[in-house]
Amino acid sequence: MSPDKDNHVNRRTVLTYAGTAAAVGLAGCSGSDGGDGSDGSDGSDGSDGDGMDGSDGSDGSDGGSESFEIGVTMGQMDSGLDPQDHAETNTEIIVGQAYEGLLDRDKQGGIIAGLATDWERTGDGNVRFVLREGVTFHNGDALTAEDVAFSIRRIVFDDVGIASPQKNDLGSIEEVIPGDGEVVVDFTSYNTIAFQLFATNGQIMQQSWVEENDGDYINRNTNGTGPFVVTEYDSGNQVAYEPNEDYWDGDVPVDRLTMSASSESSTRVNRLLAEETDIVTNVPPQEVSRVESSDVAGISSVPSARIIFLQMRYDVEPFSSQQFRQAMNHAVDVESIIENVLNGFGNITGQPTLEGHVGHNPDIDPYPYDPDEAERLVEESGHAGVEITLQTPIGRYLGDVEIAQAAASQIDSLSNVSCELEQREFSSLVQDITTGNIEDKPHFNLLGWGNGEFDGSQTITPLMTTDGALTIMKNEELDGLLADAEATQDAEERVAILQEANQLAHDLAPWVFLHQQFSVYGVSNDISWEPRSDEFIDPDTATQQ
Amino acid sequence: MSFGRFVLKRSLQGIGVVWGVVTVVFLLRFVTPGSAINAVAPLDASQETRQAIAAELGLDQPLYIQYGQYIFDLLRGDMGFSYIRGQEVAGLVFGRLPATVELALTASIVAIVLSIPLGVLSATRRNEPVDYGATLFSLGGISTPNFWLGIMLILIFAVEYDVFNTSGRGVDVGDVAFSVIGSEPFVGTLLAWLAYITLPSIALGTYFMALITRLTRSGMLDELGKGYVQAARAKGLPRTLVRYKHALRNTLIPIITVLGLQLGTLIGGAVITEAVFSWPGLGSLVIDSINRRDWPVLQGSLIIIGTSFVLVNVLVDAVYTYLNPQVVND
After folding, report:
1. Are B33 and A428 in contact (CB < 8 Å)?
2. Residues of chain B found within 8 Å of residue A262, distances taken between Cβ atoms
3. What is each CA distance from A27 to A14, A30, B52, in whole angstroms?
4. A491-508 helix and A322-331 helix, angle to the nearest 10 degrees
5. What is the dihedral of CA B56, B59, B61, B63, to 10 degrees?
6. pLDDT for A375-419, tens place per residue?
7. Chain CA centroid to CA A234, Å
8. What letter does residue A101 receive in the DSSP assignment?
9. What number is the ipTM of this complex?
10. Inter-CA distances, A65 with A58, A253, A266, A277, A537, Å
11. Looking at beta carbons, which residues of chain B come within 8 Å of A5?
């Protein structure tokens, strides 16, 4: 374990040596990280982007770049280091440096090999993963099929140890059968997106290590197979890593990695500009110019897998009227909001499935901003003069309050609708949203949804179908389309069905379709790093400038 | 009443206060909107998953059983498990306490060392430039919000001039102490520690410093105008002796009371400063726990903060009584 808790190594080193110099009258001490190691990371390329069977195509190492130290500052730290007992992006980023799943994703969200080198469907619709050989956990023990089976079972079965919040993330699994260098996952019914689910979820732990340690220990320590080994865990403050010397994917080109957090966005930006960290997350729009105008860092952004929208409950007036819901879509000037509130960091949407995700319909255009058309539709709906209230969470999504203020103001500017805004603390709002009873849900609220599986069904099903956990909609045709998409085993046919569902969702307009949120990072000029579209941070792909 | 009985009485009252804090904080979770389950489970978790999580966290039990279990565990020294982190609350809370105490004590020491001489100087040189300067500083210090001051300090001294760190706690006072006997250079480690703690200490301690300066000034002015001071001067006692042994000692009695209360406030109230400087103390743990509805950690933190208040106040009462024995009889 490293005794150095400082992620601002240069400054501290300088101060330390300065102090030494002052004390003993010496000068000329050198500092800094240095290091000239080479890497050997490869670029696995045997991916498929559509969830079909595939295989690893690792193409060997390229080598040649220098080793270095890197710091990442996020908005919040982890909720413990158990990779199967959380449901948060920040925790996923922190534990995901040490743990891996059977499959992984590339920068664009395509499926690539992880701990499995081959994956396929068996004749009966179940899936088989062939495990990578020679993989060891950080404690030196070899990865086994039993470890993989145990890990999956720990997530989906309550009697294996914990009530995992990821239970639904791997689909409905009947049993997991370990074999000779392979694992077969037996689903209760044909799962069309099995590989998408395993590319996003299901990190692998060592069975004996989990069984030998209690929850407190597992949440403070790691024993994964990933590229980094946790060397220091200061709960809620900082996690330090060193490279896994035995990593199956070759040398990790980073000498030391530090993850820390600052809840204040200005503090994160200040840390970046003071060169105390290398990557900061969620740079707010108002801070972007400060970063871009500096000579030490820049902005790097990528469209994320998160869509932002205004939900309208189908069973209450005036939102029970399809015309009124469409009117709300015409009333909100989304492009103006993206430009003025989000500083351009957003893509306008017109359907629940984002571009690049399975089932996206390229023929659907967003609703144009047209207040006159909005007023006409409101008149036709019979709800002229109605008063509505938009509820928004505070600080949950990038610029959420400002976006809601702008949308409510634009709706309120219609001559025949009055709209007020109610700001709510997210925990309070989400309690109403997640109630199993639609009658308890808000009538009109802002929400965001991250689709880590990059599959349209993972947005439409929970949010728009009758039995969805977060639904505000009931439409038999839409339910039928999603059921068809789930039943079909033909990938092309499934895409066509989902595209049809997206067209129907556009027409039904249960949401005011707003935008695709961007992940906006501040990145030090000392490194070169490209962000991923699934919000995961992979410092092992960064290189020294 | 003897001094010992007085302190014992105060201590028993303190235990009652801590129990009240425990109970109120426990009950708050049931009237506060939002559920810990939503902080643990994903938005689209099924009702079955939510129920399983509730059962695992013990949230499916009736209120009185949860309360009884919590008090029982607490009396055994078990503060429970974090809903969110899955870690022992005691480890989390006591892991953060040193950072907060270090910050609060540093801010207090700096404030006391600077403010009392400044207050005395201001009182003894009334209506002179130094008095005007001290008054202006006091007003500014009391009026300035510490979050704004913190941000300004960071922008000027960390980002612009690169003298101090913007945030975090890379080196603690323990590192400095160990550097005396260890291999790390002492001066370098001390400078590194100062690079981290200086700005948050100033941001946190400025209000404190301004308050004590004003209290010292007004107290000294009051005492210097009293008859016993005139008598002491008339007897020929040196001016310095009269000021610092007699007048200042009497001035310190109300100041110590305020010091005690303020030290408790600094331990529990460094929330904003800790957030601005990402200082990993109890304040930031409280904020994080509130945001995540992590009630066991919040309860544990508030119990420690409440207990700190009580302990400091019992200590202040003891010192106060020592300085002014009449208090016991009053």
Report:
1. yes
2. 167, 278
3. 12, 9, 63
4. 90
5. 160
6. 999 999 999 999 999 999 887 888 888 999 999 999 999 999 999
7. 24
8. B
9. 0.75
10. 19, 7, 32, 20, 20
11. 169-171
